[in-house]
Specification:
This protein is about 40% helix and about 20% strand. By secondary structure, the chain is an alpha/beta fold. It folds into two domains: about 230 residues, Metallo-beta-lactamase, Chain A, CATH 3.60.15.10; about 60 residues, Winged helix-like DNA-binding domain superfamily/Winged helix DNA-binding domain (Arc Repressor Mutant, subunit A), CATH 1.10.10.10. Strand 8 and strand 9 form a beta hairpin. The protein is elongated and about 70 Å long. It binds zinc ion (ZN). The site of zinc ion (ZN) has 5 residues, from loops.
Length: about 325
Amino acid sequence: MAPGIFSVREKSYSFGQPATNIYYVPDGDGGGLLYDAGYAMYRSFNDFMTGFRGLAAHLKQSGRIPRAAPFSGLVTTIVLSHEHHDHCSGAPLLKRYFPRARVLASKATTALLKSQDAIHKDLGELMEHLLMSLFYRIVRAQQSIHVDHILQGNETIDCGDRKFTVLLAPGHSPGQVLLYEHASGIMLSSDLVLRIGSTWLGPPHSDYQAYQDSMDGIVRLNPTLMLPAHGGAILNPRERVQELLSFRRLREEQIIRICGQAPQSTGDVAWRIYSERGIGTYLMAKGMVGLVLGHLVAVGQLRRVKKGRKTKYVPAVK
Ligand SMILES: [Zn+2]
């Protein structure tokens, strides 16, 4: 992936769920850091373990891991980027194989994991094919994820000779943490910046303004390479962030134009923009449209009006 940073791609077998990149940084001393823990589904997890065993064998051969290092010690730190189940629900399974590993997460992520709503409200998981798999998934989702250490932001995580700075980057989720290696400019960017498509934002936990602020913060650091949780590496981080931010601006302008034609509810706006792409996209996007509308009210571009029992949006200045 990048010098000394390796990725194991963990497939999901649930409909519509993306594969997750789990990053491994060996510390040269028989331990190492995992950024994200992936899915709890056994099939996905077994794929990951097969991939990880292959990687470990390769790293031993190439001398990056001492040959005598026991397998169970290869992971000493697991950083959970945020509470979404494709990033963290595999942590209890990982702890069975790597009992010495300490799980690190931000305060907000830890609080959300405690409330467990991230997993229990996951519709994709609940709609899953058969009764048996449904049963297993519910059982697995109930495994609580224990966080050993809370990340405050801006501290350094040492991994052998390497130093990663913890960056709090809320927006997509309130407690998202990125890891940034100043020396190389490499950033592990989780869901904040993806190479293809824009990051999902929606209720109940996304924050549109925080997302923009996190993106602005990243641009200021000027990373040279981003390794996201889904899809390929981003070789031009600055341009990619600018591209995503200008895409959001165009979308805001489009929404303001639509509301200028006639008062619109959140559903009206989402339908106008997304209905052509199918009902699934419309439903996914409705939450995001709601966030953008709320943001446009907050910055004085739109205002809310009551139409019967419905809230509609109109331009703030007529
Ligand atoms: Zn996420």
